[in-house]
């Protein structure tokens, strides 16, 4: 008796899920296959899947959304460092490294923001114009990634071991991973254009 009821329920669930995917225009398989080419595929899928309806099957929209995710994470990281520098009990060297990180993350934020604007211009361009705009995007995102990784250099050595260093490294790793993914997806879009 239970199996007779289970089959129609499973069928209804499959029909519902299929209808939901069709109705929303979501293309999670496009996101998964695109994210398979990046360095941090699990983070890529997790961060971009909520935007499947917007992305659909568009490499341009995928690249744009990945940059937007990187921008949001960079803003969050900037807020984190602004709060952290006011933390009581910081060692002078920790405070100096935090201020350096804040400057680096602010530069990174600016570069990703410029990249998003440039990518919009890039989408309307053709031929050499496309290549020029795309080169700007790739350079700025690559520089943003370098900036993010530079931040942790200030926390090198045994004197900096502790909660602050661990926290900073986790925060920087988070933003660096989404930025790395964004760069890979931008590069993939450039190849397909």
UniProtKB/TrEMBL annotation:
Q: Which GO terms describe its biological process?
A: plant-type cell wall modification
| Uppermost EC category | hydrolase
Q: Keyword Hydrolase: yes or no?
A: yes
Concerning CDD domains, the annotation shows:
PMEI-like_3
Q: In the record, what terms sit under GO molecular function?
A: enzyme inhibitor activity; pectinesterase activity; pectinesterase inhibitor activity
Keyword DNA repair applies: no
InterPro entries, alphabetized? Invertase/methylesterase_inhib, Pectinesterase_inhib_dom, PME_Inhibitor
Output the SUPFAM superfamilies linked to this UniProt entry. Answer: Plant invertase/pectin methylesterase inhibitor (SSF101148)
List residues of the Pectinesterase inhibitor domain: 26-185
EC numbers, comma separated:
3.1.1.11
User: Which keywords appear in this protein's UniProt record, sorted alphabetically?
Assistant: Hydrolase, Signal
Q: What name goes with this protein?
A: Pectinesterase
Q: Which source organism?
A: Helianthus annuus (Common sunflower)
């Amino acid at each position: 008796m239970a199996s007779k009821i289970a089959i129609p329920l499973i069928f209804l669930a499959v029909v519902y899920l299929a209808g939901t995917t069709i109705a929303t225009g979501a293309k999670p398989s496009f996101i998964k296959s695109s994210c398979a080419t990046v360095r941090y595929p699990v983070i890529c899928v997790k961060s971009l899947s909520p935007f499947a309806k917007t992305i659909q099957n568009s490499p341009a929209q995928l690249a744009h959304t990945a940059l937007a995710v990187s921008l949001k994470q960079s803003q969050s990281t900037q807020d984190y460092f602004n709060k952290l520098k006011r933390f009581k009990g910081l060692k002078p060297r920790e405070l100096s490294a935090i201020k350096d990180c804040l400057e680096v993350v602010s530069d990174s934020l600016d570069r990703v923001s410029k990249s998003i604007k440039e990518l919009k211009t890039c989408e309307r361009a053709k031929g050499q114009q496309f290549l020029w705009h795309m080169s700007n995007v790739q350079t700025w995102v690559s520089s943003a990634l370098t900036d993010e990784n530079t931040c942790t250099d200030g926390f090198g050595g045994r004197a900096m071991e502790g909660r602050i260093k661990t926290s900073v490294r986790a925060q920087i790793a988070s933003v660096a991973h989404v930025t790395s993914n964004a760069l890979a997806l931008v590069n993939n879009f450039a190849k397909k254009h």
